[in-house]
Design brief:
With 842 residues, the chain is α/β, with parallel strands linked by helices. The protein has 4 domains: 206-334, P-loop containing nucleotide triphosphate hydrolases (Rossmann fold), CATH 3.40.50.300; 342-498, Helicase, Ruva Protein, domain 3 (Orthogonal Bundle); 534-669, no CATH class; 671-842, Hypothetical upf0131 protein ytfp (Roll). Helix content is 47%, strand content 10%. The chain is built from 31 helices and 19 strands. The chain has a 5-stranded parallel sheet with strand order 2-3-4-1-5, with helices on both faces. Strands 8-10-14-9 form a 4-stranded mixed sheet. A 4-stranded mixed sheet has the order 11-19-17-18. A hairpin with a 2-residue loop joins strand 15 and strand 16. The longest helix has 32 residues, at 571-602.
Length: 842
């Protein structure tokens, strides 16, 4: 879509000028050299104008998270096509290469995360970074200071790198060492090479958008929480004499039974002229294709004053589709999201009320404090989504309607009760109104915890909503006074305002960087620059995978070996081992077959098919085949949940196979199981409960598990099997850390296992630190434990009920409930989105 062809345009025009001189002879004109310069300048102006126009048109319909992606992809393609940048260098930035044999870190291990070292060694393939690893080892302290700088993109680089690197090369360095600062640096880089217009977006203007519309071009508004496009359309319509009063405007909220009404209005206005707005069309996805066809028919001879405006929410998952693609292509798309910072959301929430609302309650001080707290809560739950999966496991459409209804409930309950009914208010707000959107049990707990903290008598005693921001004295402020207080007292935007650790910002910025470049690679076919063939890369990767792919397990021999052992005490564990080997065989067989088909297709011995093409695409962008939900290649269907790339997940598979090989050699239960290395870790935990239930003579449905953190940080320290339990290793904490050594305090014994420590505040930049070996014990369910969809809740302030997820994506990857010791209130860890992950994304 974006291209540069200045040289070709110049050559064609110059040839025309030369022919003209021969024909005209003595005609007076300017020297040829001046004409060339003018033509080149004119071409540059045209290209810049066309490029910016197209970009602004595209940007208007993009989500905020995608605007930088498109601008980056566009800038890189233009720079490569203009010869100002090499495609190989661009691929270092886009693909984020990792060295398979990075070697020793030396003194860098004291401060540099281990996962970063392979990235450093990989970018040494560029001339500008030759010997970077050695230089970092020799100047370790200087590089440590740069690495720890809050704004590393602006900090001075050690040695000659400050002057020797270009802006683009600094991006590559940041991509490897500080991915959380890449978005900011990219914005600056694009502003330098493309201009400020590509990074600074003007406020949305409905009148300017209307100029581009026509009777056969609908306008499609993407709906976001807190954003209603209806007033934009109505206001513009009134200025042009289009309104409901003169029957030239119709606003229809789509729902069951509204289809005939909408079709009738569209048909009538197309003949007579008028504007129709069809809201919430995502609720009528089965009817939308009929609307699309109707707009095509009436658009052929529609009245010049006919306009159709459509609004719909985006699907909850990026791979879902609730609107026909052809309809989207025919529309002018507008995506104008609400701000995500907490101050803007708080002001927008408070603006929904006025002094009359406060005066309408007979408990003036109580309603002011509680309503302001409710607005703060609304701002937090709406803004929290920007932290991705750490914010909410799923996307929820919290909106102003929830806030307004809650405010009405608040006033009613205050008017009809002698004292503030805190429990009733929390339940209605958290379980019915805002909780009505929530489908994940852990997200519901987070929502209710916020309300437990914010809707509290401490509101009248200056309690802190967040560090540095207290609940104001309601007796001293009126409605406008609260707005003034927000302007003057609000701290700078940070994750701590949401109850999250500063690492949450580093984490979501790093994830944004990863997602940005992955999208560029996917849309560019595995190349960040001007594209090009990738057959050699695919073939070399295919050969490497085929060479390293191990043989399947011999299930006949394994079953024969297992049969006499099944009646024994370890029988449930042996069943798990056989099941795991069977699942691994299915995956290995599918991989071997598809790679063989790919090899034949590349040799011309087999016709290309859609699954083979999808496999080629995935290998080209280093993605595990089948992770794209539209892919016909089925590796992911037979694999485990993972966020890793192809190379990392293949190595992960080999490690899983190594564990199964050791386990199946004599079918002796491992002293410590790498639980994240199983396809179905729940089955192993069930086996633990089953063995213990048989031992104590209790039914299996009366058993559950509890976890304790041992003082063993290395699996080699485990020398014997656990009692009525299992040792498990390979876990990571997100949102907190587990202390070690003297920092962990005194040790204590649990059924013969030495345990130590309690949840502690994370260290900056330690996003997902490892956990020691876990002692997972099978226990009888106690009568005072609360059954829930995610397990049995202890409701003990000394125990944090921690969700365990397969990946950092959380949500659908939930595995089981862990119980962790805490010396701090559990609300801190709940609002801080603390969880255990079974694997990192690296």
């Amino acid at each position: 879509m974006f291209f540069r062809g200045i040289d070709s345009v110049k050559e064609v025009k110059v040839e025309e000028e030369e022919d003209y001189e021969e024909d005209e002879g003595d005609s007076p004109r300017a020297p040829l050299e001046k004409t060339d310069a003018e033509l080149l300048a004119r071409c540059n102006v045209l290209l810049d104008s066309i490029t910016l126009t197209v970009f602004n048109y595209v940007r208007r319909g993009l989500f905020e998270v995608d605007k930088l992606t498109v601008a980056t992809m566009m800038a890189l393609k233009i720079l490569v096509n203009d010869g100002k940048m090499k495609e190989d260098d661009v691929n270092f930035l886009v693909m984020g290469k990792i060295s398979s044999d990075p070697g020793n870190m030396g003194p860098l291990h004291e401060w540099l995360p281990e996962a970063i070292w392979p990235k450093i060694k990989a970018i040494e393939g560029m001339t500008a970074f030759k010997g970077l690893g050695d230089n970092m080892q020799s100047d370790s302290d200087d590089w440590s200071a740069w690495f720890d700088d809050a704004k590393a993109e602006q900090a001075k680089l050690p040695g000659d790198y400050q002057k020797g690197l270009t802006s683009f090369e600094k991006l590559i360095l940041l991509r490897a060492l500080r991915p959380d600062r890449v978005s900011t640096a990219l914005t600056t880089f694009i502003g330098e090479v493309m201009g400020k217009d590509y990074i600074v977006q003007k406020p949305f203007n409905m009148a300017e958008t209307y100029v581009e519309t026509s009777s056969d071009t609908p306008v499609f508004f993407v709906l976001f929480a807190g954003v209603d496009p209806t007033p934009w359309v109505e206001s513009l319509g009134k200025s042009m004499g289009i309104s409901e009063e003169n029957k030239s405007f119709m606003n229809i909220s789509m729902g069951q039974g509204q289809e005939p009404v909408a079709e009738s209005v569209v048909t009538r206005f197309a003949k007579e002229g008028g504007w129709v707005m069809l809201q919430n069309c995502h609720l009528m996805s089965s009817w939308v294709p009929a609307l699309e066809r109707l707009l095509e028919v009436v658009g052929e001879d529609a009245h010049e004053n006919f306009r159709c405006f459509i609004s719909a929410e985006p699907p909850p998952m990026a791979n879902w589709k609730n609107m026909p693609e052809s309809l989207m292509q025919s529309c002018i798309k507008v995506a104008n999201e609400a701000p995500s910072d907490i101050q803007s959301n708080l002001i927008r929430a408070w603006d929904n009320f006025d002094q009359a609302k406060l005066d309408g309650c007979n408990k003036t001080e109580a309603v002011k404090a509680c309503l302001f707290s409710l607005c703060w809560f609304h701002a937090v739950v709406c803004g929290r989504k920007k932290f991705g999966q750490q914010g909410w496991s799923r996307k929820y459409s919290f909106n102003v309607g929830d806030l307004i209804i809650c405010s009405n409930v608040l006033v009613s309950y205050l008017n009809n009760n002698d004292t503030t009914p805190w429990d009733d208010l929390r339940y209605i707000f958290g379980e019915i109104m805002y909780g009505g959107h929530i489908t994940d049990a852990w997200d519901r707990r987070t929502c209710n915890t916020y309300l437990k903290v914010y809707q509290d008598p401490g509101l009248f005693a200056g309690m802190e909503f967040a560090p540095g921001f207290k609940s104001p004295n309601p007796e001293a402020l009126d409605y406008d006074g609260y707005l003034t207080y927000v302007d003057s007292a609000m701290p700078a935007e940070s994750p701590t305002l949401f109850g999250l650790h500063p690492n949450a910002e580093i984490g979501y910025l790093s994830n944004n960087t990863q997602n940005l470049f992955f999208k560029i690679a996917a849309m560019s076919g595995g190349s960040g620059g001007g594209g090009g063939g990738k057959t050699d890369v695919v073939k070399s990767t295919m050969d490497n995978l085929m060479e390293r792919l191990p043989n399947e397990f011999g299930m006949v021999e394994l079953n024969l070996k297992a049969k006499p052992l099944l009646p024994g005490e370890s029988g449930p564990f042996i069943v798990v081992a056989c099941q795991e080997c069977g699942r691994m065989n299915v995956l290995i067989g599918e991989m071997r077959k598809t790679l063989s088909d790919l090899d034949k297709a590349l040799k011309g011995q087999l016709n290309m098919s859609i699954p083979i093409e999808d496999l080629i695409t995935a290998i080209g962008i280093n993605q595990w085949p089948g992770r794209n939900p539209f892919s016909k290649c089925t590796w992911q269907k037979f694999a485990w949940m993972s966020q890793k790339n192809l190379a990392s997940q293949f190595n992960d598979m080999l490690a899983r196979i190594d564990q199964l090989n050791v386990w199946c050699e004599d079918l002796v239960t491992p002293k410590s199981i790498w639980l994240p290395g199983l396809f179905n870790p729940q089955s192993y935990l069930t086996a633990v409960q089953q063995v213990t239930a048989r031992k104590i003579g209790k039914p299996l449905d009366k058993m559950t598990t509890e976890t304790h953190v041992s003082n063993m940080w290395n699996v080699t320290e485990v020398v014997e099997n656990a009692v009525d339990a299992t040792y498990a290793h390979g876990f990571f904490l997100e949102g907190a850390r587990w202390p070690s050594g003297d920092d962990a305090g005194d040790t204590y014994e649990v059924s013969g296992t030495t345990c130590q420590g309690a949840l502690a505040e994370s260290r900056l930049k330690e996003l997902i630190p490892p956990l020691p070996v876990l002692y997972v014990k099978a226990v009888l369910i106690q009568s005072d434990w609360e059954p829930s969809p995610v397990g049995y809740l202890r409701n003990n302030e000394e125990i944090f009920e921690c969700p365990v997820y397969s990946t950092t994506f959380r949500g659908p990857t939930y595995v089981f409930l862990a119980t962790l010791k805490t010396d701090l209130p559990t609300s801190k860890w709940i609002m801080g989105a603390v969880c255990i992950c079974m694997q990192t994304d690296e």
